[in-house]
Amino acid sequence: QVAVKTRRRVIEFDQRMAARSAARIALIGELKAAIADEQFCLHFQPKLNLRTNNINQAEVLIRWNHPERGLIAPGGFIELAEQTGLIRDITRWVLLQVYGLTPLCLRQNLKLSMNLSAIDLEDPDLLQFCKNLHRGRPEGTRHITLEITESAAMKNPDQALELLTGLAELGFQIAIDDYGTGYSSLAYLRRFPVTELKIDRSLVQGADLDADSQIILESTIQMGHTMGLVVTTEGVEHDAEFEVVRKLGVDYVQGFWLSRPMPYEEFRLKHLVGNHDQLTQPN
Ligand code: C2E
Ligand code: MG
Ligand code: MG
Ligand code: MG
């Protein structure tokens, strides 16, 4: 009796596993097609410069415009893209889009940030790809910041150091993203050619109600400044959180408090000067 029950459970479990891996295989196929058909778009999330009170930077965040399922956030496909190596092609697509926007950045005095994944830091051909972009328009790199998380940088620090040094030599800025979620020390990360520290939203959220969080935020911001880094706080959602980070002397603020990420057209209308930049819209 028990054996039969167990057996049935095992079969059900197998079927669930099979269904899951079939779904995964289907999704991989769809992701490959998405890359070939360029079914992606970039949303733009502005950053407020607290020194000038201007919006002169934005982070680009990818979305998958799935033919049946509509817009899919990165949480729905980046991990699979990393596991399959497809992220390399996605990163190249984002780089091409952002690089194509650098003439706009020059006209608008705008800087754009984009995300690299840990897999990109192990990609032996990425530097050459970036060198080719740079050769086509050498002034483009200085408008672009490449964001890497501390855990990505620490996965293979020597290889990451070599690539990031090469990218920095081309003129790209490098930012540490989601700082405070890993275990690495800022002193160690300082070996990388980093110019910006982005403090993760987990350190920011609710900081107005929690004295300990404020102490951690304050010392992180101070340490970043001591190391000569520009400091951004991510995930600022409420007025009270904004007041806390402003008083602690942060340089840039990003978060729903200022704006959610938005499609290019909306970003252009809200944050860019004039209307002549309509034609440069990527997707
Ligand atoms: P991230 O680089 O840390 O980007 C910030 C994420 O936080 C974005 O989510 C953004 O929408 C969200 N966010 C911004 N402000 C707030 C806020 O005030 N509250 C809350 N709760 N969330 C906020 P999104 O667009 O879903 O992206 C998630 C992550 O996916 C990114 O985190 C980044 O790690 C990754 N990602 C996005 N685009 C790309 C890409 O082009 N390439 C790669 N490799 N990864 C990407
Ligand atoms: Mg980021
Ligand atoms: Mg982040
Ligand atoms: Mg993140």
Automatic annotation (TrEMBL):
<protein>
    <submittedName>
        <fullName>EAL domain-containing protein</fullName>
    </submittedName>
</protein>
<keyword id="KW-0472">Membrane</keyword>
<keyword id="KW-1133">Transmembrane helix</keyword>
<feature type="domain" description="EAL">
    <location>
        <begin position="24"/>
        <end position="275"/>
    </location>
</feature>
<keyword id="KW-0812">Transmembrane</keyword>
